Amino acid sequence: MRLCGQPGNFGPYPDWASGKRLIRRAIELGVNFIDTAHAYGPGWNESLIGEVLADLSEEVVVATKGGVEKTAADKVFPDARPSQLRLRCEESLQRLRLERIPLYQLHRPDPNVPFAESVGALAQLRAEGKIRHVGLSNVSLAQIEEALQIVPIASVQNRFNLAEQADSDVLELCLARGIAYLPWGPLAAKPFSPEAPLSDDHRLAAIARAHSATEGQIALAWLLQHAPHIVLIPGTTSTVHLEENILAKTIILSTVESLSLGALFNNVKTR
User: Looking at the annotation, which residues are catalytic?
Assistant: First the structure.
């Protein structure tokens, strides 16, 4: 998402060649899952990724999304009509240069469209072979249950991080149902802002020092160890930051550290 014009992730990434190098470096470091969306740009981020994929021999799973429209940096709105989802999916196939999208996600439920109709459109695209797996984003427990009556759900992408754990019930449902959970905003970054509060949170400082790590790495490590079905998708525009993020997987927090962090940010006293 960050590899777009700024502010608001609108327009093409200004240093296109640098963006491609960053994606290639991520793949060199072992990243094999890339998350994007039609709304990122809109379209420009998919085109950037598509150019990289065209030159790759490695297998990379690409996830994209439809159901949100962006006409300006500050004009973003849902449009999950079946006809629109089909149009955006077909455009994504072209930009990503794929015959089938590995994971296609409903970006956001549209209050003007029955949820079952939007999910049904993705089920139809799956039946036609345009997408392999169906995912959901920004959804509730009830919506996940409703979607499961229509089509198998491979993933859920909701906001969740050390400082924002309100989605724990959805996280637990996904674990029970064998659904991957993709927490967006893993460092608590806000839309339209490049700042990631958990990258510089003093409450993480002591544990970070103990592991010779940064606060941001501790926040990512906590997520990785929080549940086995979590797939991290931190964004970046910097190779140094990318490599820092990747190293979070090497940090092993003790059970006491993990529980203490979770309780601290939930304002719950540990026992």
Answer: 40
